[in-house]
Design brief:
This protein is mainly α. The chain has 27 helices and no strands.
Length: 560
């Protein structure tokens, strides 16, 4: 994670520092964009920058512009202490929850995630990154999506499932290359190269890690970025250590160490850990112990957990055992027991959090269907026999029902596959109503239908927050007129109209996109705007006569 901080600096913007003062009259007369420019130019003068941000907020509050107020608090967070920065970002999020601006409220969640990561609150950082991703997805803000994914991946690389972290890093890189026109492409690309390399180091695949670190070195040379170059040189040292090339690893780590002030806070721990590990492997225990004691000192001072701490304390305890220094040995053993307990707790929490909530398109962990077992009870043997018999009987009936139902589903699936793609999902969405004419002017009806076509084409129905009132506003009409037009022209109420559009989208996407079929049903439901897998499955069955899980499996079996 040496380079992630560089990425966020670039996301904020590269600021120039101007020494001249800014008088009160200038602030009073400046417009919003002028104030932002003044803030950016004086960001290193925290007192002045704070004054400018507060003036921006004051102007926005006077005009009751909540989005601009949110922007002001976001800027204020940049020049505040970490604790206050998080509070200001909470205000940014609150003010912009309903904003239509493409950057809000996701930007508040993403910067909050970044600050929380820096103070080692990984669980909260992860949750805010996931929420930020979801809002960025709704606004189709690809840059923000990639930023969120890098944050999520960073936590996963440190505390989660390393194989899954690698998979998500590779998929994030794939998303990045679909957005090559982005101004942040280079910075995102570098972050992806680092993240993928980190995963391979964790997975003990140093050759693969070195391939990506080498790409990072080449990219930094191309951009004449000496800091990034040195960061990748240092990272290469970690991969060379895993490979067993200790002299080369030592050389890389020591060369890059001169640039340590440009790296993030966790760098010191990793540098000392790998240096100590190299010397231990080379048989120089005294030098190795000296570096490991530095790791211990950092932990004592900061109380920040790292996955490598158990190795450090085990080595230190063993070293003092060999010296016959039982008191120091016991001290390190006690620390070892404590950090193992704390690390295990953190790993379990974060892995569970990722497993339960990290259901983001193209980044899902496939889950097997959960089968609820029967709880074994201490009852008499006779009662157990009756229970087992009843279960077997029910299972037999269930099996017969299941087989029959699968045959019915199979026939329905084959019928659906025989139909043209446009017929299956769209036939229920056309204008088939034969009621008496609407008591609404024809030009108004035409405008509403035209806006509904745009809404459908842009897939606005995928938003889980779409409501009749909001859609009416987007269609330049009122909810009464919109409801009547949908009832008459679509022959269904608003809720059915939205659900059928979502189900039709899911039908086509599952059929045409093999990657989409890898998602859990819960994830597919959320991606299509449903609040739960149950409501999605019911709506899908109502429209097509089969469940989405069966449909997806059949498509895979047929190699569609």
């Amino acid at each position: 994670m040496f380079l992630r901080s560089v990425f966020f600096v670039l996301l904020i913007g590269m600021y120039n520092v101007h020494a001249q003062s800014v008088d009160a009259r200038t602030l009073e007369q400046a417009g919003y964009e002028e104030l932002i420019e003044l803030f950016d130019n004086h960001i290193k003068d925290t007192l002045l920058a704070t004054k400018i941000a507060k003036k921006y907020i004051e102007k926005a509050r006077a005009q009751r512009d909540s989005t601009k107020m949110a922007r002001g608090y976001q800027r204020l967070a940049f020049v505040a202490t970490k604790a206050n920065a998080i509070k200001y970002l909470d205000t940014t999020i609150t003010l912009s929850k309903n904003s239509r601006h493409p950057n809000f409220p996701a930007v508040g969640y993403l910067f909050k995630s970044y600050y929380l990561y820096n103070v080692e609150k990984y669980e909260e950082s992860l949750q805010n990154a996931i929420t930020g991703y979801q809002y960025a997805k709704q606004k189709d803000n690809i840059d923000q999506q990639i930023t969120a994914l890098h944050q999520i991946n960073g936590v996963n690389e440190l505390w989660g499932d390393y194989e899954k972290a690698l998979e998500t890093e590779l998929l994030t890189k794939e998303l990045l290359f679909k957005n090559k026109q982005s101004e942040l492409f280079t910075e995102n690309y570098i972050a992806s190269l680092e993240g993928i390399g980190n995963c391979y180091v964790r997975l003990k695949q140093p050759d693969s890690a070195l391939v990506y670190y080498k790409k990072g070195i080449q990219e930094s040379l191309k951009n004449k970025d000496s800091i990034t170059y040195q960061a990748f040189v240092s990272k290469s040292g970690t991969a060379l250590y895993v490979k067993g090339d200790y002299n080369a690893a030592l050389d890389s780590l020591q060369k890059a160490h001169a640039y340590k002030e440009y790296f993030i806070n966790s760098y010191d721990t990793y540098y000392n850990y790998y240096m100590g590990s190299i010397y231990f492997q080379q048989g120089n225990k005294e030098e190795g112990v000296a570096y490991f004691r530095k790791v211990d000192s950092i932990y004592e001072r900061k109380s920040v957990l790292y996955p490598e701490l158990p190795v450090v304390y085990d080595k230190l305890a063993t070293y003092h055992q060999e010296l016959g220094d039982q008191e120091t040995q016991l001290d390190y053993m006690q620390k070892l027991v404590l950090v193992v307990k704390l690390i295990n707790t953190k790993r379990v929490y974060i892995k569970d959090k990722i497993s339960e909530e990290y259901e983001i398109p193209k980044l899902l962990e496939e889950k097997d269907a959960l089968i609820e077992g029967l709880e074994e009870k201490h009852q008499s043997s006779q009662k157990k026999v009756w229970i087992i018999g009843a279960i077997l009987l029910l299972s037999l009936f269930g099996l017969v029902y299941f087989v029959r139902r699968q045959k019915v589903f199979q026939k329905r699936f084959e019928m659906l596959m025989e139909q043209k793609s446009e017929q299956a999902p769209s036939k229920n969405l056309s204008d088939t109503n034969t009621q008496a004419p609407l008591e609404i002017a024809d030009d108004i009806v035409a405008e509403i239908l035209e806006n509904l076509e745009t809404f459908e084409a842009e897939k606005g129905f995928l938003s889980p927050k779409i409501k009749l009132t909001q859609l009416a506003k987007d269609c330049n009409t009122n909810s009464t007129y919109l409801s009547k037009v949908i009832n008459y022209k679509k022959d269904k109420n608003f809720s059915s109209y939205i659900n059928e559009l979502r189900v039709a989208f899911a039908f086509d996407e599952l059929r045409d996109n093999a990657t989409f079929r890898k998602y859990t049903i819960k994830a597919v439901a959320q991606e299509c705007g449903f609040k739960s897998a149950e409501s999605f499955s019911k709506a899908f069955y109502k429209m097509y006569g089969i469940y989405p899980s069966f449909y997806s499996k059949q498509l895979d079996q047929k190699g569609v």
